Amino acid sequence: MPGSAANKGYKFQSSTAVATPNGGVEDEARTQEVESQKIHENAVGPAKRKTGWDIKASALSLNTHNRIRNIVEAMQIKPNPHKAMIPLSIGDPTTFGNLKAADETMKAVLRSLESGKFNGYAHTQGHETSRQAVAKYSAHQRPEGVIDPSDVLLCSGCSSALEYCILALADRGQNVLVPRPGFCLYHTLTEGLDIEVRYYELLPEQKWRADLVQLESLIDKNTAALLINNPSNPCGSVYEEAHLQQLVAICERHYIPIIADEIYEHFVFPGSRHVAVSSVTREVPVLSCGGLTKRFLVPGWRMGWIIVHDHHQRLGTAVTGLKNMCGRILGSNTIIQGALPDILTKTPQCYFDRVIETLYSNAQLAYKMLKQVRGLNPVMPNGAMYMMIGLSKEHFSAFKDDTHFVQELVNEQSVFCLPGSCFAYPGYLRIVLTVPSAMLEEACVRIAEFCYAHYKKDTRALIKDRLLED
Predict the structure, then answer these.
(1) Tens digit of each residue's pLDDT (9 = 90 or more) over 233-290
(2) What is the rounded distance in angstroms from the CA atom of residue 14 to the CA atom of residue 3?
(3) pTM
(4) Among residues 282, 298, 279, 288, which one has the least CA distance to residue 260?
(5) Distance between the two ends of the chain, CA-based, in angstroms?
(6) What gap in Å lies between CA 423 and CA 155, rounded to an integer?
(7) Nearest Cα to 20, choosing from 31, 29, 12?
């Protein structure tokens, strides 16, 4: 066989011939394969080799669950065909088309794309100019108003930022304190890794402040971090500075760092003010997680960040761990990184004001209407884009639990809320406030009709009402 040009001048080694039953020969490669198999058999023995296909999922993948999806998919839902579906369950503010990204935000990405400068990999922490922009944008998170760009790590969305923080601070066998009710992702990110979630209770009668005594009782030597979500999903609460100081004091007493989920930091309604937890302490290390997702109404762009607040370098090797985590996906989306400086500086305040005005108006509308419905106890939010609504179980005895209530609400009225069980808080519903106001009003009317149809008075109330009528 003629040799190729690439092989010219190369002298092939002669192969060792092995006689075969049919008189043919096997080359050296086949001989080596046979010898390798013999060596393997001698080393491990036939009993230790696979004898057939037996592929199994990893423990991590099997133990990773999204509570919302698991609960919702188990429901037996058949929406009323005579009523248009109104999904008050979706936490994506862009779903209904009434809330859109600003023109300036869109144009910033177009300029980044057209520049051709951001098609390759960036530093795993993010482009320097992008981190500088985030540092300047988030300067309010420190009393001195200055953040070094080296303290900023860009991630693939805020969910990725939260994952990196949890995994950098907590190991198998340790525990993380998370709020209840709280975003189910916290549990999803930990359970598959044998990191224990310990829930500290939020008190609806105190505007969802944390139960400080119960929280502190959860702490032991294996507590790796306290997670604070402020403003809250699903509660819509916004903590006052005094309450944050109480939480910080607990962490200082027990030497526990804080993971601050502050993705909704700018979603605050009139009369309230968001205070970054990092701005009230220089003693407790804080990892603040944020991003473009909610405020700029671009959740699909997957741009989040972590800001490390550690005045006394108490995080130690955990900072190295965070940076290592960023290397798992070789950095976040570079087109969006290239647009960050313009997005964060050129999107006008009037745009943000209009978004807040829409959310606040919807919150007032839903609260006013649902407060009048017997058996419901809505808690007026001060921020974010959600409202929690309590159910009087004794007056809705036809339903086994909040999930059953939601299922039948969909089947009868085609209104879909999320049951509180999705947030480890049964007996409540969560609705989103991002829908068009007319749709929200219609949803509230249907919820009221459903409650009226299924509300059950207790015997004492019925007797009292009859006496009053007589």
Answers:
(1) 999 999 999 999 999 999 999 999 999 999 999 999 999 999 999 999 999 999 999 9
(2) 15
(3) 0.86
(4) 288
(5) 112
(6) 25
(7) 31
